[in-house]
Write a structure and sequence with these properties.
Strand order of the largest sheet: 2-1-5-4-3-6-7
CATH superfamily: Glutaredoxin
CATH topology: Glutaredoxin
Number of helices: 8
Radius of gyration: 17 Å
Order of helices and strands: HEEHEHHEHHEHEEH
Strand content: 15-25%
Structural class: alpha/beta
Number of domains: 1
Number of strands: 7
CATH class: Alpha Beta
Helix content: 40-55%
């Protein structure tokens, strides 16, 4: 009986553990908003990094608040921070307009840290553990690429948790 209960809890734990905890960062080639090719897995290798991703317009709109909060916090001074926009679901003929809209108001340095992806959407959704497109997703990685913290939602609600994980 005890063995059956224990087995049930082990199976339940595996089912509720976010998929992103068991995966490595996808090696998808993307492009920064400044037009430079980038593979995030290579760019963050060997350094602490924070990835803030949006999988829809609504979710993407929240990524800017995350980046501002992280950049304003001295605890993240040594971390590489990247915004990620997944555009695979957007029709190809409007991706250029979407990119132009995202560039507005961003400095050249910010454009270099803003990655646009148009492939492997399923892998990225799995990595971030996407359950809703309406919110931004955040992952804190250590220098070995291990996930130290992950979450989704808005910066005002979760940034203190991310800061605590950074220590």
């Amino acid at each position: 009986m005890l063995r059956s209960i224990l087995r049930f809890f082990c199976v339940a734990l595996v089912m509720v553990t976010p998929a992103c905890l068991a995966q490595s960062l996808p090696s998808t080639a993307g492009e920064t908003l400044s037009g430079k090719p980038i593979v995030l897995a290579d760019a963050v290798r060997g350094r602490t990094a924070v990835l803030v991703a949006g999988f829809s317009r609504e979710g993407g709109n929240g990524t800017g608040d995350w980046v501002k909060a992280i950049q304003a916090d001295p605890a993240f001074a040594k971390a590489s921070v990247y915004s990620v926009a997944m555009l695979a679901s957007a029709p190809g003929f409007i991706r250029g307009m979407i990119r132009s809209g995202m560039k507005k108001g961003l400095s050249p340095q910010a454009q270099d840290r803003f990655v646009v992806l148009t492939e492997d959407e399923k892998s990225w959704r799995t990595y971030f553990g996407v359950t809703t497109d309406k919110e931004p997703y955040v992952v804190l990685l250590d220098a070995q690429g291990q996930i130290l913290w992950h979450g989704h939602g808005y910066a005002a609600n979760l940034e203190p948790q991310l800061r605590a994980a950074m220590r």
